[in-house]
Amino acid sequence: MRRPVIAGNWKMHNTTEKARELVTLLRPLVGTTGVEVVVCPPFTAIAATVNAAAGSNISVGAQDLFWEDWGAYTGEVSGPMLKDLGCRYVIIGHSERRQYFGETDATVNKKLHAALRHELVPIVCVGETLAEREAGKTLDVVRRQVQEGLQGLVPGQVETLVVAYEPVWAIGTGRTATAADAQEVIAFIRETLRAMYGEEAQATRIQYGGSVKPENIAELMAQPDIDGALVGGASLDAISFAAIVNYKE
Ligand code: PEP
User: Fold this and answer.
1) Domains in the chain, CATH or no CATH each
2) Of the N and C termini of the chain, which has fewer Cβ atoms inside 10 Å?
3) What is the separation, in whole angstroms, between the first and last Cα of the chain?
4) Cα 216 to averaged position of ligand 1 atoms, centre (Å)
5) CA–CA distance, 19 with 158 (Å, rounded to integer)
6) For this structure, is 166 an active site residue?
């Protein structure tokens, strides 16, 4: 049984004060769910968020990490630093990082191994652009991202991993993939992982991300291979994010 995991990616939003306010509102609203709840603030608000979430069932994740642990890498933040702050999760290879900061499947792979080395749960993002979808290349792109970005895992790591399928054309646009389209690609991701790593891939949780809202979460979660969601815009509002987390009610 895969426990659903719903994560909020706050992107470049929220000061420490706002982060505290948001988590304080959220805590009582997500107290009784069987879903794993994660919020991913910007680096500057991680400590405040961890503090505000202490004793609740909200875990905290970062939005990125660097693959080296220490050294002359101005501006970077490493796995040991995130662990030190109390992070449990880290998003890797979000399409905005691929688009604006030159991340590739090779850098995603290095970051994945760094996260696992420090017992951070990686949430690795994959997904096609609109042009790739329209050219009929969705499955080729996603296969390459999975085969190259997720290579070199050992038994025990595949079940820890979380993958987020996020079609780039659905992120922040209000356009959601249909539940059936999302299920098709996510089943394909699981099949690709199974070809690489065998039956352990049945335990890997695969989220959908891209304009997830309270109105569409239940249909997405009803699909057999969708194990949660990575939520951007709607995670900035406690009521909306809680409604997504409590999709069963
Ligand atoms: C995201 O940032 O990963 C995302 C899916 O954003 P949104 O929910 O706003 O589309």
Assistant:
1) 60-120 (no CATH), 137-233 (3.20.20.70)
2) N
3) 20
4) 14
5) 31
6) yes
Q: Which atom of ligand 1 is nearest to the CA of 209?
A: 5
Digits of tens for pLDDT over the chain (249 positions)? Answer: 899 999 999 999 999 999 999 999 999 999 878 899 999 999 999 999 999 999 999 999 999 999 999 999 999 999 999 999 999 999 999 999 999 999 999 999 999 999 999 999 999 999 999 999 999 999 999 999 999 999 999 999 999 999 999 999 998 888 888 999 999 999 999 999 999 999 999 999 999 999 999 999 999 999 999 999 999 999 999 999 999 999 998
Question: Any idea what the Cα angle at residue 228 is, between residues 205 and 220, rounded to 5°?
Answer: 120
The total of other beta-carbon atoms located within 10 Å of residue 12's CB is 8
Report which residue type is found at 6.
Answer: I
What does R_g of the chain's alpha carbons equal in angstroms?
A: 17
Phi, psi of 30 (to 5 degrees): -120, 25
Known binding-site residues equal 9-11, 172, 211, 232-233
The answer to whether the CB of 219 falls within 8 A of the CB of 200 is no
> How large is the greatest C-alpha to C-alpha distance in the chain, in angstroms?
49
* pTM reported for the whole predicted model: 0.97
ipTM: 0.96
Single-letter residue type at 141: V
DSSP 222: T
Helical pair 16-26 and 46-53, crossing angle rounded to 10 deg? 30
Give long-range contacts, CB 8 A cutoff, 24+ apart: 199-203: 200/155, 200/156, 200/158, 200/159, 201/158, 203/2, 203/158, 203/159
Mutation to probe ligand 1, out of 212, 215, 240, 244 (largest number of atoms < 8 A from CB): 212
Which residue of the set 36, 96, 166, 200 is catalytic?
166
